[in-house]
Specification:
The chain is an alpha+beta fold. The protein contains 2 helices and 4 strands. The chain is elongated.
C-alpha cells in the first residue's frame, strides 16, 4: 500500500508527463532529492512552466496534508531543472536513531 506522499508524487509525475505544453519530462534522484528536467515546447516560457508545475502539484496534493517545496535549479541547454518535493507538515521525515516514540519506522 502506498503512502499519501508516494501517491501524490505518482500523480504529479503522471500529470506532468501527459501535459500538452511540455516536450519531455525526466525525473532523476540525486542524494535522495528528486529533480525534474523539463523541456518545454518552443512557445512556452519559464513562468508558464512554473505555473504548469504548480497546477500539477495542486492536483496531486488534493485531499492530502502535503505542502509543495519547489525551487528552480538551473537552465540546462533546452531544459529547465527544478527540485520538487512534497513535504508532510509537522512530521518526521527520517529516523534519527534516538529511538523516538514517534519514529517514522513505526508508521504504516
Amino acid at each position: 500500500m502506498m503512502t499519501d506522499h508516494e501517491r501524490a508524487f505518482e500523480i504529479f509525475e503522471t500529470q506532468l508527463t501527459r501535459h500538452s505544453d511540455l516536450a519531455s519530462v525526466v525525473f532523476k534522484t540525486f542524494t535522495g532529492l528528486p529533480f525534474v528536467y523539463i523541456e518545454p515546447k518552443p512557445e512556452v516560457t519559464r513562468t508558464e512552466v512554473e505555473d504548469i508545475l504548480k497546477v500539477c502539484a495542486a492536483k496531486a496534493m488534493r485531499g492530502k496534508r502535503l505542502t509543495l517545496a519547489m525551487s528552480f535549479v538551473r537552465k540546462n541547454q533546452a531544459s529547465y531543472v527544478y527540485r520538487v518535493r512534497f513535504l508532510v507538515p509537522q512530521r518526521k521525515m527520517f529516523c534519527c536513531g534516538n529511538l523516538c516514540d514517534d519514529c517514522i519506522r513505526f508508521t504504516h
